[in-house]
Queue: 3 jobs
Job 1
Amino acid sequence: MENEQLIGTVENISDYSDTFTMYWTDRRFIMVNTRIQTNVGLGLIPALIGEAATKLTESRKKTENAGLALDEIFAKDKKSFVVDYADIETIELHDPRSRWRSRKLKIKMLIDQEPKEYTLNEQQHEKLCGFLPCIAAFRDKLRIR
């Protein structure tokens, strides 16, 4: 988009089946699928080989995407998607004070019945807490718990 300003990026966001990089701009966020599933069989050795192949693919995708416009990055993978901030009903960041519960990002969109939920690590949570309140479109939509 013309004159779009990138506000923040968070890598390795998981929704239980895929891994994404989130690009947050002043108008929308873009979820770019970064994980290619590699199934090489059951057992420890095949699992290690599969994980190594996945990490290599993720690294290669990151290198290929460097320098591309957000719309070009988005268009490269069919699991990637874009959400305009006007389509978001609420956005919640959960940080349970218990180490046994995970941090979550929940995004309720006007078009979906169920909110999208993403698991966060501590650094991802801190990063989102740092820049999400700065996005003007979230003034009445953002809840940090």
Note: The chain has a mean pLDDT of 80.
Job 2
Amino acid sequence: MIINFLDVQWFQVYVGGLTLLAAIYIGIKQNQINERFGKLNDVVELHGALLIISSKDNLGREILKEYICIQNIGTRIIYLESYIFNGSKFELNNHILASTYSQTLANYYQVELPINTSTHVSLEIMYKDIDGRRWKSEIFADKLQSGVWKVSPFPKKEIK
């Protein structure tokens, strides 16, 4: 009976303790991996590009309108609050902009470029993500000598 107590039960307690420590270690490592993947999926970024839309007027003549096409290339839904276009502020009242990864239709916002003699425009967009963090992105557009607009987006900045 004493030999049985020393040989079997303590060995089982020892093995059980090692198993418990291994499970705790694996759990901690799994949480660290999950946290890293969570950060990879927490991307907020806007992109701006030139968008040209063709339509016809009442006489059947083709009209080309040029826009800055704003897309959410991050992984999170964002809410557009407002933008400043060449010094004039426009409210967007939390316009929802789905991620391009969601493959929703019309997942962009467009701002019409001027048709006057302007050769440079600046666009500053204020928005927030689904967690309420506030961001700001800048997009510049310059009209080249060929008459085509070159749109240049810049990385986002967090608004504190």
Note: Strands lie at 46-56, 62-72, 78-85, 88-97, 108-112, 120-129, 134-143, 149-153, 157-159.
Job 3
Amino acid sequence: MTDEHFSQRKVTDDYAPEQARIKLASFFEGHPSALEAVQRLNRTQACVLAALLDSKSITTSGYTIPADYGVKRASAVIHSLEKEYSFPISSRRVETESDVGNKTMQSLFFITLEDQERLKTEPEVVFKERYDSACRKKESQAQKEMRRLVKEYGEEAVLELLKKAANDEAGPDSNAG
């Protein structure tokens, strides 16, 4: 099948919100914290997650890459499932053509079979690992930014800014004047 002839279905064609929630409740049966997380998902997130846990792939609607479903603002939906709820979603970049004919890269999202199995048997462990990893990444990014600030302003100036921040003082307004 060529890209021009590939048509995507909407995830809600096969995963209506009510059906998606039933599938998710069944998938996470016996895991209260996972069930609680699923209950907090909005309708789109629930539909997408149910599809991903059924080994389906998702991309942003309107692109011609082979995916099971197209979802409006798929990257934003996936981002929230990963960052807010710690679901292990994988992606790969696929070359496609934009609506104006230029070559572009688009993400295809999925949950690996290994991650599906782990989510089914030990979702709490998966969530904790993902959360801890995100915290380590955030800390690493903060350290990088601190090194940049020390290099740019010097250690004393950064320590002074840090003291002000710790005391919740407003720093000088750089836009004033």
Note: Residues 3-112 form one domain.
